[in-house]
């Protein structure tokens, strides 16, 4: 695809960006938005063929792919190092990779608990730390960690364990922001509300939409602008923030 990037508002021209979970519903839209803003992307997910197809479809050039299944410290460290090697450094991390197992509380096994925590919480910490350490040496950067409305609500549709991990991510954002702020590394989070992706299955959609002031389910494209804002120099004095993108369903 030869479409030229749009380097207008929230420009990321020349910025080196790692996007995880890149083939997911929200991240697929983010990949296009980040590329249009001029970013050079390292795309990570579990499906290498799908990543390659996505990279080829994006505007701009110089994008690369790193297929990996994130679940622990070693994989997270290797991903950060591989991304920096491919791009020559790393200015921005946008981390969306996560897993959700919808189960009623009495049905949750230790394996279910461990799997969601390994991917959603442990890998997130070690990836964010590895990137932050790189950015510290570079003199600064931006990290955007995706949490969820469930960090505030406790989750809907049999998702207590998932919500617990996302609560940990929200706390992690604040702690890492305090740790790395003195080195010019900003750490923020985004908490989507109900968004039209496969992960939506099993949620109490009608009741949530009825309680949402904007009166609709979010679309993946609704997350592009907020992500570009936090990734770009436009948010240079913003860190430790969880940005609520829920159509008004949450208010905090």
From TrEMBL:
Gene3D superfamilies: NAD(P)-binding Rossmann-like Domain (3.40.50.720)
Name of a matching Pfam family: adh_short_C2
Family matches, as InterPro entries: NAD(P)-bd_dom_sf (IPR036291), SDR_fam (IPR002347)
Highest taxon listed in the record's lineage: Bacteria
Protein family according to the UniProt entry: Belongs to the short-chain dehydrogenases/reductases (SDR) family.
Protein name per its UniProtKB record: Short-chain dehydrogenase
